[in-house]
Amino acid sequence: MSEFAVEATNVVRTFNAGSVQALKGVSLRVPRGEVFGLLGPNGSGKTTMVRILSTILAPTSGTATVDGYDVVTQPNEVRRRIGLAGQYATVDENLTGLENLRMIGSLNHLEKSFVLRRAKQLLDEFGLNDAANRNVKTYSGGMRRRLDLGAALMARPPILFLDEPTTGLDPQSRQDLWSIIEGLVEGGTTVLLTTQYLEEADRLCKQLVVLDKGTIIAEGTSQELKTSLGATVLSLTFHSTQDATRGLEIIRVISAKPANIEGTVVELTVDGGPSSAAEALRRLDAANVALAGLTLREPSLDDVFLSLTGHKTEEEGPATDDASTKRPVRNP
Ligand SMILES: Nc1ncnc2c1ncn2[C@@H]1O[C@H](COP(=O)(O)OP(=O)(O)O)[C@@H](O)[C@H]1O
Ligand SMILES: [Mg+2]
């Protein structure tokens, strides 16, 4: 048995005769029994990687194994060991929750009595008991996502790929899914999860890699990534957006690290903490720019991403149907 649940080496994938390079040589190792995060903005190559690992798509070059089996030469062995659930629920709208799971069970050639037992167990665990006999059409987005996850788990796969499982969900549904994922891992499942929500990676993933434009730009634990930034975030609130723009110009010289402006709030990553805050105040005071507020905080993974790429994860984020979830929740 391979030491790693998933191992990818120099995986390259191009599209359109090489004009699109979705993955430019990605290597990763997913230890057994934990949640491993593949973090990156929209278009960074997350889904392409998951599709390669789940044998849907072949790599242009490079190799990958799942549970020790090669995704190209031993796809059937790989498929027997994985479950896949994603951003777009694949369940049938015109069937009930229970019918969907039974159908998946028979497609997987699982034994009939096992299928019914397993389906009921999953519906129960995922809070879908009351909705089990209702058409999926009537389900909320969160319920569909949970049912989809249940479908991926019917055959009890030891390795689960979750491709942006909470994108577009409201905060409560997201929390519900997080608890479910944590429960699965406690039960021994290995999870490879893609996300563009840094808070999600922070909460769930022991280790993660950060993808940007098909390349890994950072890896480690979320704490390691935050520590590598080695800094504090100085957050300044101004009375107007004009003041904020001017304020940023004035304090920009304090730090070579990334700065960010959003409305009336300017955030600057600094090394000095309190001394940088004092210097910012002196400079703003000298230029007669008034402040409405100032805080110092620990960097979040958002800040790490900004520092590595010069842009925020959500800048290229997808449109979702729920405005309240468009922007990943930032760590306090
Ligand atoms: N079938 C395809 N044909 C052409 N380009 C594709 C295809 N699939 C993905 N891409 C491109 O590859 C890049 C990575 O896409 P994807 O893996 O879906 O990123 P992510 O899941 O991180 O949003 C994007 O530029 C996307 O447009
Ligand atoms: Mg994707």
3D structure, described in words:
With 332 residues, the protein is α/β, with parallel strands linked by helices. The chain folds into 2 domains: 4-223, P-loop containing nucleotide triphosphate hydrolases (Rossmann fold), CATH 3.40.50; 227-325, Alpha-Beta Plaits, CATH 3.30.70. The protein is 35% helix and 27% strand. The protein has 11 helices and 14 strands. The chain has helices at residues 46-53, 75-81, 97-107, 112-125, 141-153, 171-186, 198-204, 222-229, 241-251, 274-286, 301-309, and strands at residues 4-15, 20-31, 35-39, 61-66, 69-70, 82-86, 159-163, 190-195, 207-212, 215-220, 232-238, 259-262, 265-270, 291-297. Strands 6-7-8-3-9-10 form a 6-stranded mixed sheet, with helices on both faces. The protein has a 4-stranded antiparallel sheet with strand order 2-1-4-5, covered by helices on one side. Strands 12-13-11-14 form a 4-stranded antiparallel sheet, with helices on both faces. Strand 7, helix 6 (171-186) and strand 8 (190-195) form a beta-alpha-beta unit. The radius of gyration is 23 Å and the shape is elongated. It starts with a strand and ends in a 23-residue tail after the last helix. The structure holds adenosine-5'-diphosphate (ADP) and magnesium ion. Residues 46-47, 163-164 line the site of magnesium ion.
